User: Fold these one by one.
Assistant:
Number 1:
Amino acid sequence: MYIVFLGAPGAGKGTQASRVAETLKLAHLATGDLFRQAQDGESELGRQAKFYMEKGQLVPDEITIRMVLERISAPDCQSGVIFDGFPRNLKQAEALDKALLELGKAVDKVIYIKVSEKELLERLSGRRICRQCQTPFHILNSSPKIMGKCDQCGGELYQRPDDAVAVIKKRLKVYFAETALLIDYYTRAGKLVEVDGVGDVATVKKRIIKALSGEFASSGRR
Ligand code: AP5
């Protein structure tokens, strides 16, 4: 199964993708996480990604597509992937379709997680993420058991530099100008399912699993 999670910054793609991937035993491919991990070292990829991310702009397609195509050829991606934060524009969507077609595969379903703009701003400005495992928390909605420490791995929690209000506004602009066009692209392909992203994390996860249930029944999963 190849599933795309689509939604604005802060819609809950990362929160849900990691949980759903664990339940369905799929790989979780998050381009934002890959770019942030690259910044931990001295790599050229990390340096380039940082330049664009701190401005709230998209990292150029050539860099992003190359990174994703390399990652999907890894053994853990062979039985399926949840794409979180990719594709983000038409060029990336077409590149993904082409790459999967060459492997005899296709995007099976696109889960569009819908949340109001007011809620997105609240979620992003209160978000803290783990420096080690990237798990997202929220200072009010899903606070960690110990302040500043990740419940999963004990890593340090920090605020992403691109979660500053001015950068959030820029990211939302980019989302509406480029990524939101994919709603139409995948609707026309008959693959898009809209899921209400408002509610607690467990409730939203249940909605997503329900939206996907036809897919994993046909692939033999429960
Ligand atoms: P990326 O890391 O992908 O960020 P994003 O798409 O902007 O999405 P976010 O991670 O901000 O939000 P999310 O939807 O995952 O929400 P989350 O689950 O964390 O990309 C960052 C940058 O990298 C981009 O700006 C770009 O520069 C670059 N990039 C990445 N991919 C690229 C690509 N394909 N092409 C080019 N450039 C690319 O939740 C948000 C908060 O809400 C958390 O605090 C969470 O705890 C809370 N929350 C989650 N669910 C709920 C709920 N149900 N109720 C209440 N709170 C909730």
Number 2:
Amino acid sequence: MVHLKTPEEIEKIRQSADLLGRTHGEIARLIKPGIRTIELDHVAETFIRDHGGSPSFKNYNGFPWSLCISVNDVVVHGFPGQYTLREGDIITIDCGVNLHGYHSDSAYTYPTEGTPEETLLLLHRTLDALYLGIAQAKAGNRMGDISYAIQTHVEQFGYGVVRELVGHGIGKSLHEDPEVPNYGKRGKGPKLVEGMVIAIEPMVNQGSRRVVQEADGWTIRTADRKPSAHFEHTVAIGKEGAEILTTHKYIEENYTYKWRNKSQ
Ligand code: MG
Ligand code: MG
């Protein structure tokens, strides 16, 4: 069942999303070779709590951390830990914030200095696919219009679109209906209506779309061990189009490696 949001509820999600965006910005300052991923989790949790929120992921179905941190061939749901980031790695930070009972959710994959050119391209193209999906998120369209835009953009480069995991509605719960798949057919699926709030989140593999789950019950890895990218925004669907409630602007301001300016 889809919960449509009132303008007042969307305002609450907007505030949650602003705190989330600023949390991402705090993490962006710290991402560099030599950082242990657990340190990022501590910074995020402290920042969220200091600003009156709580981390949506912590204890969600037993997930033990505030961030999902997914390095290189980890697609999503990686655990923060003792791993020390190295030159050439890519690292996805996925974070959710609960502020006054309303959730927001966004993710960003960072390259580091030394990330191979072909993996930089994967990141550029996955981020482009997110915005192509968002461009379809308007009242009157169908969910499949979002899915199709994402899938066709990345598959033209031979990448694999992960199917086992999808985007989702969001609001009073972190995960609500409807599902937002990153693959699908134009004109199919649920109709998009004003007041829907959804997380759109392409997960795109440099190689095959196949994934495997680790024994920890959470970590999802590419089956061929090639890198995977993941970008996510929480958006509100309106008559004229989507309002992007989350933001990557604090990441872009604070991350020292200006990779988006590099060759695409
Ligand atoms: Mg997320
Ligand atoms: Mg999500």
Number 3:
Amino acid sequence: MRAVVLVGGRGTRLRPLTDHVPKPMLPIGHRPMIARLVDRLAAAGVTDVTLALGFRPEPFVEAFPHGRVGDVVLHYAVEPEPLDTAGAIRFAADHTGIDGTFVVANGDIVTDLTVGDLIDAHRRFGAEATLHLTPVDDPSAFGVVEVDRSGAVLRFVEKPAPGETTSNLINAGTYVFEPSVLDRIPTGRKVSVERETFQQVVADGRLYAMPTDDYWIDTGRPETYLDANIDLLNGVRAERCEAVASGAHVAGSAVLDSSLVDAGASIGEGVRLTASVVLGGARVADGAVIERSIVMGSVGRDARVRGSVIGVDGAVADHAELVDARLPESG
Ligand code: GTP
């Protein structure tokens, strides 16, 4: 079985982190989220993954110099210009000769979905495409999917008003496609899989869906990226991770509460970290207090940081206070 993983987005909502590191290369529990995703695909029998790349392909190629994650072989398809989700899937599939049933995954989703169950459901449905769905508390900010008792998708309702739909299920970003879906995607322009391609498959009655209540998070925003890390640390999921990666330096008097420190980061004496992620290369000087923040750059002595995102080039001065900020601000 082959898979296409979408990793070519700009990740604007996670700036300035994504000015230097593409979102799917950011770590969850000390490991790039793309590597965790490929492991999950491998457990479903996926042997080959095509990375649908666009913006900033180099870090992926550099991170996996042997072109493998475990036993899974990586293929790279670099778009000459962003083609949006469906355009990217077609480009990647054409580029690497995919001609059988295949899996598609968004590179920024963290979930405990058993991908093999989605493949089995797809075969049972006899579908042309099958989507994984996840429930949300407030569907008004999402595209909601209505499904009948047989699993067939009836319609998509974009940002529903109260009472417009009884469904609280949203597209969870993992699909199984027959290759015929590719023929529906025009080439050479941007095409959105949700807004265009799925609508066509629904019209032909060939789109099905499998809702599950597996752990699921879209890491696209700083708050959700933090939560995905903290949940893995705190044992909310089947697996868990350590707070401090081997190769990180954490001074003996530092206090960590629901926080992660990556290899190559350094935490000084008396530092207090709460619900935060300190990434490789970051420097946190003695006495700094950091809460609900992501740090890639440096935090000075006795500085106070809350609700902030500090990129590689961000530097919080000694004794400074930073609240709900992004440093440096990128345009
Ligand atoms: P934002 O800029 O913060 O919205 O993030 P994003 O660029 O990642 O967009 P979004 O979260 O909507 O994208 C969902 C998935 O599709 C992510 O895994 C993206 O990497 C990927 N993606 C989005 N647009 C493209 C594209 O034009 N080409 C490719 N190859 N992937 C894309």
Number 4:
Amino acid sequence: MTLFEKDGRLDLSRRLFLRGTGGGLLMGSSLGLVGPAFAQGGGAGNLPELPRSRPTGRPIPEMEQEMPMEPGRRLGWAVVGLGKFALNQILPSFAESRSSKLVALVSGNRQKAEQVASRYGVDTHNLYDYQTFDRIADNPDVDVTYIILPNALHAEYTVRSFKAGKHVFCEKPMAVTVEECETMIRAGREADRKLMVAYRAQFEPHNVEAIRRVREGEIGPLHLVTSDHGRILDPKDPADQWRMVKSLAGGGSLYDIGIYSLQAARYLTGEEPVEVFGQISNVKDDPRFREVEDRVAFQLRFPSGAVANLSSSYSTASVKRIQAFGEKGSLILDPGTEYEGNKLTVQSEKGRQEVKVKEQSQFAAEMDHFSQSVMENRNPKTPGEEGLRDVRILQAIYRSAQEAKPVTLDVTASTR
Ligand code: NAD
């Protein structure tokens, strides 16, 4: 009996699946494990008689999506920072990517780096820590660095990556200050390398579909966007500990998750705000909010007259909701910015409809978009200038809250 047989039938529960670099799945015959269970008749010897309808293979079904590139042609990515988001979301997503492959890791913890390297097939010569990071310049396998560090370290590692001749994909928020964002953009230009901010929602299929429907006028002229992003900040979670420290996080809930509400208002209206108004409130005497803010309620006014009523919170139960209201209908994404399982409902002249949207990894999509942008020398959809615009607006919201009055934004300054 072969490795894959049980009572003369194929034992699917014991089928071997291996994950290789870049996440390709290798199975059975590709491992050279071609035994009688895979062969067409003959050589069965004293094996028990097999059932009549045996799997024989069939032609490749019509491909629904582009085939992945051969591993040798994909761009090599180094993930910088092996924290919660990198380990749980990003590293597994390389398996779904078509033009990006994981080739290097940067971590302050060698043991963790080695364990992760062995799981994802990363060569141990391609492991770096924060001191040896600059040696990445000598590694031709690495084309792109993906910065997944606390916000205050984004600028430093972006600039060091550019100096090493690499392209940079940086987590949100792009950096802590406007000046840092400008330095990052300048460093990219000087090195002639590309910079993209990881705004995954702009690659998430339900959000993409919502934007398409708004642009096509399904809900009529858009007059109002509302969006709320909230969760409980947990001081026991190491990933939340630096988020309570202003010098590492840059800000509180607004910087961390309010940026999703802000992004939604910008990508749904397709406009840049001309005025903001913000109000901040903290749970009284709560040690979590000694340095960073808890809740922010903020409003934006756009040139068309559209307004957005937005919020972020670190002290309310989880919410990730986006709503757009037009003259002819409305559209609800609830949840709208989960890692998966988002939902889009549209209310229009045709009635109320939950839109079926095919799930697709937003992480693989954004990484592949950047790899393609580099390969084809195109500007990415969410370049450094997009991250800078958000940081500029977030800073204006803080100023408005501090001064207790609306702050006017100079839209022409956005991309300078
Ligand atoms: P995390 O704390 O789990 O990961 C941060 C990593 O940086 C850790 O491995 C930590 O060891 C390392 N690190 C290096 N120097 C450090 C220092 N001086 N202080 C603290 N940690 C240091 O945090 P996370 O939740 O993975 O967030 C990392 C980044 O990813 C943040 O910028 C965050 O905004 C972003 N993020 C994005 C999403 C998204 O959906 N796009 C989701 C979560 C986090």
